[in-house]
User: Fold these one by one.
Assistant:
Number 1:
Amino acid sequence: MLGSLCYNRCMLIRENVPIAALTTMRLGGPAKFVLEIRNNDDVVAAYDFAKERNLSTWVMGGGANTIGLDAGFEGAILLNRANGIEVISENDTELIVKCQGGEIWDNVVRFACERGYSGIEAMSLIPGTTGAAPVQNIGAYGQEVSQVIVNVDAYDTKTRQFVMLEKSEMDLGYRHTRFNVGADKDRFFITAVTLRLKKAHMQPPFYTSLQAYLDEQEIKDYSPMTIRTAVCAIRESKLPDPEKVASAGSFFKNVYVEKDEIAEVEAKGVPVRREANGRGKVNAGWMVEQCGLKGKELYGFRVNDKAALVLINEKAKSYADLAKARAEIVEKVKNKFGLTLEQEPVEIPVKE
């Protein structure tokens, strides 16, 4: 361990840190360096540190959507640890908040719900940091970050300047953004996220599991805090706590099919949820369950018996085990339904 290295201020720098200790799936060999970022000065210092040593960089928040490889990472992992929530404006109809990139996402959700503002309540308990939210365009139960984001503050590693990017510049789609695909992938270190939330209530029809919970509890109040409480109860009953159980949350993306493909998919007995844009969404967890994999152990991983979209690392120590488990699940779903599952968590390359 190097302790700390000073540029503009002291920044914690560690050496040879197991990626398994930084990610909720608990996999991955050593990262050459790990740097903790707490303010904008640290961002500049971290990239200077990496440039001087000719190191690749990898930005990480809470490690809940990240998989490490056995060989580790021959570069510097930058951990976003800057936190804070600032109210930019608030009135009877809307709340605009700027959240630091290292702020825990669920803290932001709770902050909004306690004040009665809607837009992110259905995304309660999604693990990770706020800076990572627009990278994946996280979403749940019909809400997505793309619906509420205004802009992000970021460090542009290409121009080596701090910039502001508007929503229109982010190319936000389903788990697809400017920040995670294409030429600008990994170009920006997001330092803050600004959200616009409304004084409103979600309206039915709700997603099946949420509607079922509301019906069972005879809940007719759809205020942000009520929906948050319901979503938390559902998630806690189905999903393992990543702080206690090794997993990466939803391991596979839901599958989207084009409008002219929906009838063919439904003919195979697959339920398709029609989206406003005409495309159809197929629940990946449902397909995994229909393949008889729910609760099954595969190479040290167990398909969660309550939510088949989740893989739990019970005893695997190697990425190779994960690769074998993933391949078997993908093959079974492909053979049964003709649809191909894609992994949602990103993987840290050994060397970029």
Note: Confidence is low (pLDDT under 50) at residues 1-8.
Number 2:
Amino acid sequence: MAANQSDSETAVSPTVVVKLGGAVAAVPAKLADLIGDVGELVAAGSRVVIVHGGGAEVSALSERLGLKPRMVDGVRQTTAEEMDVVDMVLCGLVNKRVVRACAGAQLSAVGICGSDGDLFAVRRLAGNGVAAADASHTGEVEAVAPALLHHLLDAGYVPVVASPAHLAPDVPMNINADAAALELAPALRAQALLFLSDVAGVLSDGVPVAALTPAAAEAEIARRTITGGMIPKVRAAVGAVTRGVSSVVVGRYEGRHTLQRMLAGRQGTTIHAVADAAAPVRSGRHHTEG
């Protein structure tokens, strides 16, 4: 049940943003375990916001409807027809699946999207060889107005956020959920952003690097320890840290208490601004799916 909190309690309660991918949300047992972790964080006094993706399910339904998803550099170029699918899957199917999982764990959750309360102000996404006209319903977050989330958190609810928003009342926009979470966390002045990926963390020789500062992250990129698609994710995480998020943890969900282990620095890669952590620390652990 939702519980009212006093202003003093709200002021000292840490905010944790959890970004989960559609792969976790699509597996009932994994989702139940993750929501169990969220419940423990809430019981311990944290204010938790969940941001979710679901791109694979969007693509699957698009193909069933005869639409061919188009990707450029990993970014969906969303047509008007596919935007309907994005809204149905992300704001409907996946969002309510997560909300109902919260209800099953006795957590009061409210599912919203980037349009609700004008949460995300967006612009059309263009660049990397993509024209704005080609990406007419693909956007990026320009600003965050977190008032609605603060109201929900103050009332004791767990907000579950789907990223689609709008450029105008008749122009819905598909927003990358990873990018949305990385904008949302600084706007909420979150203590931590737990970024659940399909890999165990930032890897060096197959082993997760336990901790990185912004300077160390750039050094690892220069040494080509961090390569490919992990580069923009790490740089985005560094951006969140430099804008006030205490730490961003990148890792894979591996069963109950993964979130607690990530917050404690015992799993995944923690990116933070602490000066004495300038050198990367190898964890010496390989992770397996739990």
Note: The longest strand covers residues 138-144.
Number 3:
Amino acid sequence: MTLPFHTLDTTLFARAQALLDEEWLSHDSDLAPVLPTVLARNVGQDWHKAGTFRHHLVGVARALTLWQQPRDIRLLGLLHSVYGNAFVDLVKFDPASERARLQALVGESAEHLVYLFCTMSRTQFVQRVLDGALETDGSLVLEKNGQPQRLTPSEVAAFLVVSMADTIEQWFSWQDDIFSRFPQVQQRPQATHWAASLWPGPMRPSARMLHQISRLADALQHPGLKGLLPLPPVFDTCRRSLSAADEAAAASLYWSVIQQDMPLLDLDVATALLEQAVRHNPWVGEPQMVLAQLYLSAGRQAEAQAAAESALQCFSAWGCSWDKRVAWDAWVAWTRILLQSAQTGRWPERLDKLNNVALAPGF
């Protein structure tokens, strides 16, 4: 059965390359003027899920930049939790006294989105979108303090795109456990479930949230929302979906290979498991990247090239990693090594030589 590999979009990859440099944000004319003020609030020292709060804010802004979102949406990504929210107690600007300061920094329209995103019920927002509650014109009615609150179609589109980037940037198995079944969170006593609480846990990729992200992406196809914002280049530009069953199966198959839960002397079982993982979930790069390395080890250069190019396409589409054990730019870097090796037909035959591989000029 043919594997659902993707063709590498060189234009998209070029956009991703520009964001691999850690200094990309300081060169961004929209975001750079805001960065010093944000950093002055110690966001680089606050814990946040798989890193620091700075890592998270910058990662969300990077994905939105890669997705070619307009200025106000990208600023919302960079500032999306600075007034605090129901999920985190990280209040970096006091919404009661500092709204005018943030307005002066980013403009009224961007600050309005930040304030609304921080103060509305995001749990309710996600749940209502998943329930298909969008109005005919694309607006959405929520409740705030017992009163109806209507989000305009433009606000709904903005919050959908930012929620997609926000979720993929931070979610991994630790949150699968402690935030079980979000947005209908199961409340479990911490002391009883102490093993699930141990951060960061095994750092498996999430086995449930990519399905939810695909449903948020699908909502952007609503007639009242289409054309309001550029569609993120994930899930075939938000035209395809990922079932919960396929996501769970793919994550399990992938992790069984990572944990080496199969015969270790031959490649056939691990290769078959990864191929099946890709069939279940062709939208993330990590399983395809590992598969490319197995193909190289087996001397299957053409298949390795196809898998590496497809993995690179997935990484370029997301701007964030699915497997949080290493950062997005590291996954991209190793995938480029694999692609180079497949194209040149050179792959180390000795383990110690893997330590020496490097990207040649032109690759």
Note: The chain has a mean pLDDT of 94.
